[in-house]
Amino acid sequence: MFIAVDDTDSRDGMCTTFLATELIAEFEDYDLLDHPRLVRLNPNVPWKTRGNGAIVVTLGKGEKKERKIGEIGEEVSLFEGISKRKEDTFQRVKKVVEEWSEFDSEKTNPGFVIADKRPPRRFYEKAVRDVVELDEVLDYLDKEELSYKGYGEKRGLIGALSALSWTPEDRTYELLTYRRKEKWGEHRRIPEEDVIELDQTLKKTFDNYDHEEKKQAVAPNSPCPVLYGVRGEDPEELEKALNIIGGEVPERWITFLTNQGTDDHIQDLSLEEIKPWTSSKITGKVRSESDTIEGGHVFFEIENKKGKITAAAYEPTKGFRNVVKNLIQGDKVELWGGIRKDPITLNIEKMKILQLKNKIVKVSNPKCPECGRSMSSMGTDAGYRCKNCRTKADEDEAKRKKVERELNEGWYETPVSARRHLSKPLARLRDNDHSG
Ligand code: ATP
């Protein structure tokens, strides 16, 4: 049986992943048949609280424990046994969700779904890449007669059903540790040297430390119950983190199977097809050098046969902005990122420089063929004229030289602390993907 929950937290506290641990504790008479799942959905939906994550817990009869749930239906017919089990499960999930959801926030609209089989993967595919309407989800839940409950605007049902329908094509794991309740909201003290050691020794982990900003990236900044989370490819290796990171002792921990770091949100849309709140890769040529606005956000335009789009490297992307600032007109790039609205802008997550244009700079104006004096410019691209004898010369007669570019062709990514949960780090891209 699968139990999926979403939208239980507010910015002021709690975390849907913590609720997963409470669900597992509530159903201690069942076996946990799989890693609980932490499924990130479309990072561009405007109503997300933080990382747009939903959870799924898989419970049932395992090899190690007796299946106690069968006893419920012993005295009744099979049909009544099933409906009693359904009702009992529903009430127990409801109790946990209601106890641990932040109902005081308008933005919190929890939902949970209980099912015996996974819904079609299309729900996940749409929810991770696009916007899903609540009606599509309610129609499915009713048609399949699933146990579910939505609170407030019931939006959490979208995330719950979509997370339930995720069957991994690519996957990673995250070990999450949680604090004792009295510590919630207190400043976290994670020894930086421990995170550096972890980063160096656990080779299949990623996004632990921001080497550019020189700060740890395992602990969140929000007042939620999470102490730290470590991401990686191998759940067994992740458990070693518990012996490396010292300081505050976690009260509990669990390893989730996740779609983090998979790029599942990225589509291959043309400039005619893109729309706000989706994510895509777009190839094009740089139209002009970048502009930096107040606040340190950097913008430039790219174009291809289908049109043009503004691309942005916002201030939190720190040193990545220097890469963008060094692009020149004519460079060919592939940009990966989310599409923002008003105006339509591609928020870059990573970039592949496909071709660098030669950078030619003017060294000096041409010499007058009559008198040998240096000629004067008549304006941008307007050519030259000798002030002495009025002789004219074309723009390309100036003396120019090719200068070394400060960039190389290849991949560049935003720093760890500005990275989206779903973005595949280049280290993973290189290990697993041979297309680029
Ligand atoms: P946290 O990371 O702290 O768990 P969150 O960022 O996951 O919080 P939620 O509180 O889960 O944010 O809010 C996201 C809401 O958006 C949920 O109600 C979810 O069902 C809904 N949602 C997620 N993806 C989509 C989508 N593609 N289309 C429409 N609604 C979506």
Description:
The chain has helices at 16-26, 78-100, 122-129, 134-143, 156-164, 192-201, 235-239, 241-244, 320-325, 426-432, and strands at residues 2-6, 31-32, 37-40, 53-60, 111-115, 147-150, 172-178, 205-206, 209-210, 215-216, 226-232, 252-258, 279-286, 291-292, 298-304, 307-313, 332-340, 345-355, 359-364, 376-377, 384-385, 392-393, 399-403, 410-413. With 436 residues, it is an alpha+beta fold. It folds into four domains: 2-164, Alpha-Beta Plaits (2-Layer Sandwich), CATH 3.30.70.2200; 172-258, Glycinamide Ribonucleotide Synthetase, Chain A, domain 4 (Alpha-Beta Complex); 279-356 and 405-431, OB fold (Dihydrolipoamide Acetyltransferase, E2P) (Beta Barrel), CATH 2.40.50.1010; 362-398, no CATH class. It starts with a strand and ends with a helix. Bound molecules: adenosine-5'-triphosphate. Residues 6-7, 9, 15-16, 41-42, 45, 47-53, 109, 127, 131-132, 155-156, 158-159 line the site of adenosine-5'-triphosphate (ATP). Adenosine-5'-triphosphate (ATP) binds at residues 6-7, 9, 15-16, 41-42, 45, 47-53, 109, 127, 131-132, 155-156, 158-159.
